[in-house]
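Hey, sorry to bother you again with one of my protein questions. There's a protein on my desk that I can't quite get my head around. No rush at all, and the record is pasted right below.
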Amino acid sequence: MPPPPTDYTQPPPTLVLDEFITKALTSTPPELHPFFEAFNNLYTRKLWHQMSLKLSDFFDDPRSKPFRVDVFHHFVRDFESKLNQQRLVEMATKVSKELDNPQAQLGFLTSLLSRIDTEKSKEAHVLLLANIAHAKLLYGDLEGTKTDMDTAAKALDQLEGVENAVNAAYYRVAADYYKAKADYAPYYKHSLLYLACVDVATDITADQRLLLAHDLGISAFLGDTIYNFGELLMHPILDALDNTQHDWIKKLLFTFNEGNIGKFEALAPLFPQEPLLEENYPFLRQKICLMALIESVFKRNSNDRTMSFQTIAEETRLPLDEVEHLVMKALSLKLIRGSLDQVDQKAHITWVQPRVLSRGQIGELGSRLGSWIERLSSVEQRIAPAVSVSA
């Protein structure tokens, strides 16, 4: 193979096909030789679509790792404008990961950006912007990451029918950016959107699944606007926590979703394993109380949502003099709607925030619906004779 390039912003040397193929066949393992023989044939016949597919197969092959940079720079660069541009960006992204430092990755990807036709290949442009943003994030350039993220987001808003791979690249870098900023709610949102664009079983490694499930759990607890864990609880990503040192985090998520203060207190001794949870215990204690209030309201029939402060104190295990503040907090967060009667010490609740329900909560809702149908049937039986007489 030719010597590795040092400056990826400079044009590559002119391709001499026979010379390149000969060197490749003498310096690569026999298992890769069929790729280079196919490259020779497809280049000679100018079959660029088939070339895109064959190159993608090559860069996907783990055995190609030591040769990816040289093949891209000394071969692909010669005809890259003729290839499917999104596939080109996907290949370039794999190649960039073989470079030895984030600065080299950034230079490599940025040089490609100037060669992509942003009007004809909008999805490829967005995909490349997202990958450049990620390289900047690894390099510690948070401001540059945010700039590229915003540009990619605007471009995505103008596109229809975007491929999952493009959306996934954007949501992934957005999630990692907000993780670096310790901004829990946006991290939670973008991570779930990322998961919606990938196949968890095949596109993410076991270690990545465990880390992602762990981080999603922590962000759910600490996000100051996250009071509904249903979407996360039903996602298979949480299975990655099973039988690991973090499996108690999954239990804690279900505990919060149920608003179960007893289980919360039973799991609290494990918080020192996660310094962020231990440091934010007062916030978490208030949050579980709010979740308990939401769950208590949700369980009640719509005509039985006037609750005394004493009842709320019992449901949330709070001192009576802290109940009013808790209800006001729930009202300000728009978790509930209603009013307070400070004289009679009652809360009149007219609405509770819609929720993604767990299977258990759906079952409970089904039981309530069944009871309502029975009462409706009873009323019908009572008034049926009177209707018949009047008729």
Summary: Residues 118 and 380 are 66 Å apart (CA to CA). The mean pLDDT is 91. DSSP finds 20 helices and three strands in the chain. Residues 291-374 form a domain with the Arc Repressor Mutant, subunit A fold (CATH 1.10.10.10).
